[in-house]
Write a structure and sequence with these properties.
heterodimer; A: 241 residues; Rossmann fold; 8 helices; 32% helix; globular; B: six-stranded mixed β-barrel
């Protein structure tokens, strides 16, 4: 499926949904002085809640920088991002870190599971960060792992799981604390086609909620059909949405 | 999150053990070498250190250590007794003699001649025999290690005879003494007998040992002796350190042990620091993910410090255990190592060194973690 087709199909039902992420005139420069490079050129875009939004584009177009800013991992040079009405520019240092801990979930391309922890322990980390007692956090993690179909792998360590299973643990970890924004960076890139589809189906089924925005960065055109909306980037700009 | 830090640390068993053993090895080297150094240097003041009744030692003013002695005259003891502040003063002989046993085997021995009347200077840890028997003709007491050196493998038996300076000597007691520097047997005899067991010199009085009268301190009496005579007078403690100072200054012992101790420190720091640094480096992506998920820098710092502390405590305990085991086993198997042991001061000092190693390893590692951009997880 081409980006244009997917975009035209998904563009129809925008109007009634809540805006989860609002980016306003985001500019990001990397480096200083003569070596400074503008990575984002004034991006203004809304990401709706209850949708799975795909962010696509060639390597180096600024996708990673954009989701890093949206997730509160990088500060923009100028412009602002608000997440369900909270402007990130109003949060500095520890407040931003706390905000991120409570409201953002991450799924990484390489899973980034801690090898010495079991699936349940890995999935419980966001709750532990928020100070929940370990037994309760593990109990919650077990529940979410059941939701993603890994109820029989709770005590398995990452090296005992397939790539697809590890990514499902990562999804459970990203969702266990009920974040309002889920950011997925190339979640299918390290997986075979079947596992990739399973992961995308899972994201679509479990992650997408009325009060949650889901952004998936991907190069994989096979998963475009899962997107409710596709934002295409090139040279630091959104070229189609 | 402390639990996560602990799990991260022991997740890679090989690296975890390498770091722990790095610290343990450093601790073992430092504590063991320091203990042996302190033990051997302490021996230079033995067996003088065993003579505790007198607190004042009078000697030739040019004496540099208790093994190089210029004798005083026998009459000098009366001059000391006549001085203000001296409660009592007695003669003491210290020298080397050659002891030959029935089989013809001989050993150089350290001979201590103690006061004939009061037996001041006698050993206080007698394991066989009676001190009063030293008053018998030709009587000597020998230390247990010395007995084993003279009659290897034979059980302790009183009444055995040996020969020193063509004179008969009879073992009337066996005692324990602090091991001397040269590990020679130590023998005790009355002063009048002792000077007969060695080659004749015109003067043979090695030291006059004395005690202050009530109302005088040892230092005050020493000052009086120095003022009223041409002799040097030192308190027990001063004499003890004079011997140690001589060996520290005039032998290669401190340099030799110093190098080993420094190597222990460097090796411990290098192994523990490098392994721990590599461990953190390899987990950087995980730390980055935790940072992205909302773990603060302070919390990450706490996690790295906790990991370092665990490595330090386990490595230190292991190293100290091995050091203690070394002394426990070696001193039982090798009598010449007797008296060498792990001092609490060295254990405490080594703990400070471990804290330094751990801080060094943590600082090296934690900088990477603190400077880590959480966005690195997307790269």
């Amino acid at each position: 499926m081409s980006v244009a087709t997917a975009v035209s199909e998904s563009a129809m039902a925008h109007t009634s949904k809540q805006v989860g992420v609002a980016c306003h005139n985001l500019v990001k420069d990397c480096g200083t002085g003569e070596t400074a490079v503008r990575v984002l050129h004034g991006i203004t875009v809304d990401v709706l809640a209850s949708e799975l939004t795909l962010l696509v584009g060639p390597s180096g177009c600024g996708k990673t920088t954009l989701i890093s800013i949206i997730a509160g991992l990088l500060y923009p040079t100028s412009g602002d991002v608000s997440l369900f009405g909270t402007a990130q520019s109003s949060l500095k240092g520890g407040k931003l870190v706390n905000f991120r801990a409570r409201n953002v979930g991450f799924v990484f391309q390489q899973y980034n599971l801690l090898p010495s922890l079991t699936a349940a322990e890995n999935a419980s980390i966001p709750l532990l960060i928020q100070g929940m007692p370990r037994p309760k956090a593990i109990e919650e993690a077990n529940r979410v792992l059941n939701d993603v179909g890994l109820g029989n792998k709770l005590k398995s360590k990452p090296n005992q799981l397939s790539g697809g299973q590890q990514q499902r643990v990562a999804i459970a970890r990203a969702l266990v604390h009920q974040p309002r924004l889920l950011v997925c960076d190339e979640p299918t890139a390290a997986l075979d086609a079947h596992s990739g589809q399973t992961v995308m189906e899972l994201l679509k089924r479990v992650a997408v909620q009325p009060d949650r925005s889901v952004i998936v960065v991907t190069h994989d055109s096979r998963v475009y059909s899962y997107g409710d909306r596709i934002l295409e980037m090139a040279d630091g700009r959104i070229v189609s949405s | 999150m402390n639990w996560v830090a602990w799990k991260m640390l022991n997740g890679d068993t090989v690296k975890y053990l390498a770091t722990v053993f790095g610290v343990a090895f450093g601790v073992l080297l430092i504590a063991q070498q320091c203990s042996i150094f302190v033990g051997i240097i302490g021996r230079t003041a033995n067996p003088i250190a065993d003579v505790r009744e007198p607190d004042i030692w009078v000697m030739d003013p040019y004496l540099q250590n208790s093994d190089e002695i210029k004798p005083l005259t026998d009459g000098d003891v009366y001059r000391i007794r006549g001085l203000t502040g001296v409660d009592w003063a007695v003669r003491m002989y210290k020298g080397l003699a050659r002891a030959k046993v029935e089989s013809g085997m001989f050993r150089q021995v350290i001979l201590l001649g103690i006061d004939d009347h009061t037996l001041i200077g006698a050993p206080d840890r007698i394991i066989m025999g009676d001190l009063a028997d030293l008053r018998q003709p030709d009587a000597v007491m020998v230390d247990a290690a010395g007995y084993n050196a003279l009659w290897p493998g034979e059980p302790f038996k009183l009444g055995r005879e040996l020969e020193m300076n063509d004179r008969r000597a009879k073992i009337v007691g066996i005692c324990n003494t602090s091991a001397p520097f040269q590990t020679f047997p130590v023998m005790f005899a009355r002063y009048s007998q002792a000077i007969g067991f060695t080659a004749k010199e015109r003067n043979q009085l090695s030291f006059i040992v004395a005690s202050p009268e009530p109302g005088y301190t040892s230092q005050e009496v020493c000052n009086i002796i120095k003022k009223e005579t041409e002799f040097e007078a030192l308190t027990y403690r001063q004499f003890f350190w004079l011997n140690i100072g001589y060996y520290l200054e005039h032998t290669g012992i401190p340099v030799n042990f110093g190098i080993t101790i420094a190597l222990g420190f460097i090796v411990g720091t290098a192994i523990a620091g490098q392994t721990f640094y590599l461990f953190t480096l390899e987990n950087l992506k995980q730390f980055g993910a935790l940072k992205a998920m909302g773990v603060t820098n302070m919390r990450l710092l706490g996690m790295v410090l906790l990991q370092a502390m665990i490595v330090g405590v386990i490595g230190y305990s292991l190293g100290m255990g091995l050091t203690a085991l070394f002394f426990e086993v070696s001193t039982k198997m090798l009598p010449d190592l007797r008296g060498l042991h792990l001092l609490w001061e060295i254990a405490a000092g080594t703990a400070v060194v471990v804290v330094f190693i751990i801080i060094f390893a943590s600082v090296l590692s934690v900088q990477k973690v603190l400077r880590l951009e959480p966005a690195v997880v997307f790269r």
